[in-house]
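for the recovery benchmark. tokens below, seq after
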């Protein structure tokens, strides 16, 4: 059985859960630009918006001030299909040897029921932010099904080195 690092945040609306979680994800990527962050939400659009928020922080002057040798690798991917990073303190060919071992982009947002989870792995952070919201969980049966989907299909995408962070508002 693999050791799992997990954090569960259940706070009221407007308590900055998402802001703290996406900032933490950005900080992790600054320290480990070879790692991956998978973001899950109740639907693809919201998950992609969260991934975009992380990507915007990575592409900010403040991030470059703290992590000057990490920047977007736009030609490899910088959008809803995932965001790729590169190190500028090593030759690009050397960086690509490291990065080519990854199937998962550095930052990727997916909905709870996305079929695109195949072969994806979170090596730094698996962030589940409001995966069970009104869009998904309307009845007790649907709530149980969403929980099963997360436990059976999403949680196993986190490697032993990744933190699983569940963030949500009480239902």
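predicted aa per position
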């Amino acid at each position: 059985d693999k050791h799992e690092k997990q954090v569960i945040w259940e706070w009221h609306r407007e308590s900055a859960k998402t802001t703290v979680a996406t900032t933490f994800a950005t900080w992790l990527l600054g320290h480990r630009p070879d790692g991956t962050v998978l973001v899950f939400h109740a639907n693809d659009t919201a998950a992609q918006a969260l991934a975009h928020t992380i990507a915007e922080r990575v592409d900010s002057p403040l991030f470059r001030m703290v992590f000057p040798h990490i920047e977007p690798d736009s030609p490899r991917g910088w959008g809803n299909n995932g965001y790729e990073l590169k190190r500028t303190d090593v030759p690009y060919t050397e960086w690509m040897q490291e990065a080519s071992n990854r199937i998962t982009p550095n930052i990727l947002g997916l909905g709870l029921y996305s079929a695109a989870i195949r072969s994806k792995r979170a090596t730094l952070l698996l962030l589940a932010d409001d995966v069970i919201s009104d869009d998904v969980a309307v009845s007790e049966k649907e709530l149980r099904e969403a929980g099963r989907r997360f436990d059976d299909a999403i949680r196993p995408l986190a490697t032993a080195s990744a933190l699983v962070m569940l963030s949500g508002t009480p239902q």
